Amino acid sequence: MNVSDSERLTGMLEAAGWESAVDASRADLVFLNTCAVREKAESKLFSELGRIGQTEPGNGQRRPVVAVGGCVAQLRGKALLARGMPIDILIGPRSLDQLPGLAREALASTDGSPQLALDRPAQEAFGTRVPAKPSSSHRALVTVMEGCNQVCSFCVVPRARGTEIFRPLSDIVAEVQHWVANGVAEVVLLGQTVNAYRWDGLDFAGLLTEVASVPGLRRLRFATSHPRYLTESLNAAFATLPNLCPHLHLPVQSGSNRTLASMRRGYDRDDYLRKVEALRRAAPGVAIWSDVIVGYPGESEDDFRETLDLLRVATFEGLFSFSYSPRPGTVAARVADDVPPARKSDRLARVSELQQSIQRERNRRRIGKRESVLFETVGRDGQLKGRSLHNRVVHCIGPAALVGQIADVEVVSAGPNSLVGRLV
User: 370-423 adopts what CATH topology?
Assistant: First the structure.
C-alpha cells in the first residue's frame, strides 16, 4: 500500500510541475513515506530524519523541504515535532493529494512553521485521482479500499488508516482499463483488508469478476486478505476466473487458539484450516502464503509449538514471519511484553527453519514442470528474474527484451526460495 501511495504521489507531483531529483542533497523536496506496522520500520524514519538534520546544504542553499507522510505521520507526527525533528510537512495517508500545494507553500515560507494535514473526511479519500507514476512498466497497483474494521489487539493500522472505506466500482474498472491500455500485464488490487470490499450489493468476488473481464488484462492479483472474508464466492472466483492468479496471501498469525483469542483475530485454528481446505478443494493448486507473529505477550512454548504444527499442516507456499513488537495505542501494548528478545529470536529462527524445509520440498516438486513467468528484472549475473502465477520467484537465462513479458519456463532446479528454469 505504501508503494502504491508513493507511486500516486509521484504522479501528482509531476502533474504539478515537479521533477524527480538525482539525489536528496540536490532536492527541493524530500518526501518520506512511512509504515507503522512494526517498530523497525518506524526506527528507520528516525534514522533518516537524523541524517537529514545533520546535512549541511551546499552553495548557500537551504535544506530541502522535508515532508513525512503515511502511518507514522498520522500516529506520531506531533510527537516528532515535539522532539525537534527537521519536518516541514506532516501529511496523513488520506491527505496525500494536498502535498503539491503544501510543498509550494513550504518553499515560499519564511517562518519555518510546519504544516499539518492529518485530518481528512473519509468520503474525500477517493476523490479525483491523477494517474500514478508506477515503479514498474508491467505491474500496476490499484487501491480498491482503505482502512480496517477489525480489532486485532496488536495492530495499529485501524488507528493509522481509519475505518473501511470503499472506492467506487466504476473508478476501479476505469483505472484498470487505463493500465491495460498502457501495456501493463498484471494488476494487483490493494486494501488493508482487501477481500472485505463491497459496493452497491457487490462483494469482493464480484469486484474480481468485473476487473477480470477488462479486455487485455492478463494477470490479476490482490493483497491482503483476512480469513473472515474468505467466502465460497471468493473460492469460486479462483476456480473460474482464468486470469486470476492462483495465489492468496491469508495471514494466520498464530496456530494457538489461546493466542489467537488474545490477538482478537476472530477465528480459531480449526476455522482457519477449514477455510484453507475449502479453498484448495474448490481451486486445487492455489498457492497460499501467510503471516506469523512469534513472541506475542503470553505466548508459551506450547502455544509456539502449536504454531509450528499449523505450519506443518497448512504447508504454506511462502511465509512472512516476525517477532512481536508492541505498537503504541494498541490493546496488546497495555500487556507486559513478557517474551524475552532472545526467546523471540530463537522462535523466529525455528519458524524460518521449518518453513524453509516446507518450501524446499514444495519447490522440488516443481522440477520438470512448466511455469508461466512474468519477467521483472535482469540480475547482476545476467539472469532474468520473474514471478510465476503462484508468486514463486523464477530465475533463468534469456534476453533482456523479455522483461515485462510473460513466457513459459521449464523448471530444472529448485531451492527453498526460488526456482531455476530454462525458456521453453
Answer: OB fold (Dihydrolipoamide Acetyltransferase, E2P) (2.40.50)
DSSP 73: H
What is the distance in angstroms between the CA of the first residue and the CA of the last residue of the chain? 35
Name the 3-class secondary structure at 316.
coil
Query: Which DSSP category does 296 fall into?
Result: -
Per DSSP, the three-state class of 317 is coil
60 contact partners, CB below 8 Å, separation of at least 6: none
Summarize pLDDT for 190-231 with one digit per residue, the tens.
999 999 999 999 999 999 999 999 999 999 999 999 999 999
Tell me which amino acid residue 64 is. P
Radius of gyration of the chain (CA): 23
Contact 373, 404 (CB under 8 A): no
Contact 373, 381 (CB under 8 A): no
pLDDT one-digit tens code per residue, 131-155: 788 888 899 999 999 999 999 999 9
Distance CA(407)–CA(404), nearest Å, equals 10
Domain 2-123 and domain 131-364 have a common topology: no
Contact 114, 88 (CB under 8 A): yes
Architecture of the CATH domain 131-364: Alpha-Beta Horseshoe (3.80)
Q: Which residue has 479462483 as its cell numbers?
A: 238
pTM for this one? 0.92
For residue 422, the surrounding DSSP H or E stretch is strand 419-423
Residues with Cβ within 8 Å of 136's Cβ and at least 6 positions away in sequence, in order, are 376
The length of the chain, given as a count of residues: 424
User: Any bridge partners for residue 65, and if so which?
Assistant: 29
- Over 60: is that where the pLDDT of 90 sits? yes
Classify 99 as helix, strand or coil.
Answer: helix
Convert 382-399 into a string of H (helix), E (strand) and C (coil): CCEEEEECCCCEEEEECC
| CATH of segment(s) 2-123 | 3.40.50.12160
Here the cell at position 185 is: 500485464
ω before 224 within 30° of 0 (cis)? yes
Pairing of β 145-146 and β 165-166: antiparallel
